[in-house]
Design a protein that fits this description.
alpha+beta, globular, 17% helix, 301 residues, Deoxyribonuclease I, Chain A, 6-stranded mixed β-sheet
Length: 301
């Protein structure tokens, strides 16, 4: 029986049939250096373009009400992300008044022709807001799970997508962490305990802390992740001075290149990374997604 989600409860949704070539799953690019995947993480601020601090006040109504300019900005984001294999989105909306009752993850998947998308609603305020994160993927996931992250204020979660089976699988974890240092440290501790159990892990999202912070250092040590690339400033998008958005990977995944993209379609800039996959990694991309959530039943859309 499917339970109705509470206002602070997390829910999962997915669709794997947006593209016309549903039966042909994407495979990683093969080069002389092996199989490669192109990754991108982006806090899209529900499709709102911000280029000055004062717009947080003057444009605050866009976080509650629909805005005609939002659709055009989302189309620009879709055009930018279409060159990637896996895209992690933060500050999306699962379909409320402000988004015109459009699930933004689903919309971007359709516009950028991603055959698979996965969505986690962290804070459900009914018609007023459906705070969510989403993943766009050119490969079908084997399994999708989610976790509630610790914190005094509920509504932070981790969305985990697995490609393949066993320790040879590729695991992607998408997060958007708290603003407060104490809550963020607890959340990173929780994430580190999960991350350390996976050999081929990608952790991406808006971590709300810099690469040289004590929280990131503790996470790297606990989870055994690669040292992040420093000085990749993503916030604010009009004058980036803080590197709070990250893609962190296991040592088994070789980083070919990583960069900040100058696409100011939000108050953050996106980070892109290309990685080389180990030879023994088995993606298992043609297996259908399986859902596992202790908080709410998964609801296919």
């Amino acid at each position: 029986m499917i339970k109705e989600p509470e206002k602070t409860q997390m829910t999962l949704a997915y669709r794997s049939s947006l593209a016309s070539n549903n039966d042909a799953d994407h495979t990683p690019t093969v080069t002389e250096g092996g199989r490669r995947l192109r990754l991108l993480t982006y806090n899209i601020q529900t499709g709102i373009a911000t280029n000055r601090y004062h717009q947080y006040l003057t444009h605050s109504w866009k976080h509650v009400l629909p805005c005609p300019a939002r659709r055009g900005n989302l189309d620009r984001i879709a055009n930018m992300v279409q060159d990637y294999d896996i895209v992690g989105l933060q500050e999306a909306d699962a379909g409320s008044l402000r988004s015109g009752y459009v699930n933004l993850t689903e919309y971007l998947a359709a516009r950028a022709q991603f055959p698979h998308w996965y969505d986690q609603t962290n804070r459900n305020f009914g018609m007023f807001a459906q705070h969510s994160m989403g993943i766009l993927s050119r490969m079908r996931a084997t399994e999708v799970t989610e976790h509630r992250l610790p914190g005094a204020i509920p509504g932070r979660g981790a969305l985990i997508v697995r490609y393949g089976h066993g320790r040879a699988a590729l695991v992607l974890m998408l997060v958007h962490l708290a603003l407060g240092k104490r809550a963020r440290a607890r959340q990173l501790g929780f994430i580190g305990e999960i991350a350390r159990t996976h050999r081929n892990l990608i952790l991406m999202g808006d971590l709300n802390c810099c690469s040289d912070s004590p929280e990131i250092s503790a996470l790297i040590e606990r989870a055994g992740l690669r040292e992040p690339t420093h000085e990749l400033h993503t916030f604010p998008s009009w004058r980036p001075s803080r590197n709070i958005d990250h893609i962190l990977v296991s040592p088994s995944l070789r980083v070919v290149n990583v960069s900040v993209l100058n696409y100011p379609f939000s108050d953050h800039l996106p980070i892109a990374m290309e990685i080389s996959l180990p030879d023994d990694l088995e993606l298992g991309g043609r297996n259908p997604a399986q859902w596992d959530s202790g908080l709410a039943a998964a609801v296919p859309l």
